[in-house]
């Protein structure tokens, strides 16, 4: 069979694609950002298409397809995401395309607990599932709980970072029930759903029968990372609310934080599910947290990732602030800054022009670093501008290398921090 996986480059979709290929299926993948996926999975026929785009043409994508697995989803509305566009309108266009192309089998990967899920996320998920149920397709809805995977993204990445927090493990609603499922079990459920005699016209929760709380998950993840035990500390709700507000704000700059208000609301509601139907589909229970962790031992790279995850926003924020302040100081005190150059023989006019130009460049780099779309260019610009500063100073004011306050030496760590930011920039 030829299976089309929407969102095949994501955390769940990637596991589904790998399982389909391993079972010998021909696989096509579709999503907004598939360039890197094309390098990672060259055996897949990739299509760049946006579910939320009203003008998206699904007919070329669906050509020759036997079944569709939809793993696409969004967490919260923002400049780059539309819940209704992806979960409802985009799904309706995809369903209509399947009907027109004669593609009958449709597996929808939704989310456990959406029946009671608060806010727009749950509402649009429910509406999308209902839209599929009204169609003439041979459909099945799979509703995974909190997905565990060898790779980490979004909420799963945040949980690893919290588990690796120094001295204590901070958690919001640590006693709330959060049922888990491994990405490999989600992929196994998709494979089972494509076989003859598989269930149809129903929704199945993919969750472990093993009850877990958020505190359980964080404690066991910390041990999995090879870190000494630490107490789980409940984060006050007002602190979480402030953090969620900040995360919602930076989302408008293109940064998709897993700490946005929708994620906080989901944690408050928990992630419940009934794993009984999954047993019938898989022929066995969904593996629980203990079994999944035992089957996927962590190495030093997982510990590095967990420790560095929360450093990423700190690094980008600090660099943005550093370059903004540096530029503003130059604009506020141009004469004093120009004196460094006039001492090297520059005319007053030339020195002031260099100071003003450099200050504006610093401010521009600081503002660009704050926006996700231009952050990479800004970080490389910081390295380049630092190199230019050092080269110019070495040429015209080499004595500054011996300055007791280290005015030149201190620029080297800033350039190295920009390189660290570049290394941490990608989310998946």
UniProtKB/TrEMBL annotation:
Segments traversing the membrane: 314-332, 338-365, 377-396, 408-425
Gene Ontology molecular functions: protein-containing complex binding
Domain of life: Bacteria
Domain NAD(P)-binding: 7-146
InterPro entries with a match to the protein in the record: ComplexI_NDUFA9_subunit, DoxX-like, NAD(P)-bd_dom, NAD(P)-bd_dom_sf
Keywords: Membrane, Transmembrane, Transmembrane helix
The protein's name in its UniProt record: SDR family oxidoreductase
Protein species of origin: Falsiroseomonas algicola
Top-level taxonomy: Bacteria, Pseudomonadati, Pseudomonadota, Alphaproteobacteria, Acetobacterales
